[in-house]
Amino acid sequence: MAASGDRDRVLSILRSPRLLLPTALLLSLIFLSYSLFNHVPTISRIGNNHIVASATGAFSYQRTSPIQNATLGFERVFILNLPERTDKLDAFTLSSSLHSPTFDVIEGVHGSLILNKSLPTLNKLPQKETARNNMLGTWRAHLNFAQRMVRERISTAIVFEDDADWDVNLRTQLEQFAHGSQYISSAFSPPTALKSKSYGGPHSPYGDDWDLLWLGHCGVSTHPADPRLFIIDNDPTVPSPLHRVNYQSIPNMSGFSNSTRIVHRVRSGCCLYSYALSQRGAQKMLLAQSTLTEFQPVDIAMRLMCQESDSFKCIGVFPQIIDTHKAAGSIERDSDMTSFDKQQARTKGFTNNIVRSTRLNWAPLLAGTTDAIEVQFPEDTPEIRGGVSMRTG
Ligand SMILES: *[C@@H]1O[C@H](CO)[C@@H](O)[C@H](O)[C@H]1NC(C)=O
Ligand SMILES: *[C@@H]1O[C@H](CO)[C@@H](O)[C@H](O)[C@H]1NC(C)=O
Ligand SMILES: *[C@@H]1O[C@H](CO)[C@@H](O)[C@H](O)[C@H]1NC(C)=O
Ligand SMILES: *[C@@H]1O[C@H](CO)[C@@H](O)[C@H](O)[C@H]1NC(C)=O
User: H or E stretch including 274?
Assistant: First the structure.
């Protein structure tokens, strides 16, 4: 009775002429934001990929819902692309439109244009000119990303190399990863010297005390200084151990099921298909790279920062959630730097470590036919026992 009386009163207020205009405005605002929101293509969750148990333990997790926004819960999204490689920019644009509608391009750099005198050292620079230029071009592009973050005071940003690829469930994976990075970053001892106002945490859904999130790599290892793990079980996006391709040592996964992913502090890693920096991490990267005493490829330089500097906090995930796509066609197209034999071609593209590759699934994703999603390595699907669950260990 009371409820229906209230409803009648609300209706009559809404019908009163004085309120007609504001009500109409309000309704059109709601409609507008609804249609804007829906303009972002959303990928339906595939398989039994819902979170059934929230992470356990006394740790209290922050909201991870901002990860569903246009910049994946980071302040900005960037891609590294040489202006001549318009083909790679086309491909990245299409893939990213299916997940993260907005990104900015950081132009790749030709090593041949980098003067010796603009380098912190010439120590260990390769003697061969092409090798020198390859190493320096990549190093400078990643450094320009850090420089841009510092110049524009960006609190957190993720960067992708332009041939990066990821699972069609990227956003779900990032939300799960974020619980892990919040947990792992929380346990680092607060760097009191760096806790001044301008160096404060990024207040990010990925946690407030980290420098680098190593999401797209070709091998990563845990850190003896912090052996704690965040464990995601029954994850249908985890490739079978038979199909994990890495180029350095990896975490010991033998105590886990084949469908388990872990988030952990990183001691060493290789390849920079994609990673995120906090403002503090970008500042530290600029400092470390502009005072180098010997040259090495930029991923090794980042690895040294993770392992040598107690205050450079790197968090990783294994298996990786971002990898690099090798497209069908001439393999000459793979690299911006090296020339391969023009005759060599592959008939089908692939991406290591990614079960449902976005690049291999453009057509079904655009058509909205998620039941036609192609699975890599269907013959070896790790056993799943129930929904995704997360725990600390
Ligand atoms: C997405 O969320 C992050 C974290 O809250 C925020 O910094 C960023 O500005 C948001 N992006 C957009 C486009 O609103
Ligand atoms: C740059 O330094 C390298 C290594 O010391 C040297 O071989 C090369 O000739 C230098 N290039 C120029 C243009 O001076
Ligand atoms: C996990 O994967 C390995 C390698 O493919 C396989 O030998 C093993 O039987 C799998 N374990 C389970 C429980 O399926
Ligand atoms: C890997 O983990 C298993 C089980 O947790 C353990 O028995 C084994 O000793 C570990 N291997 C190495 C090389 O640490």
Answer: strand 274-278
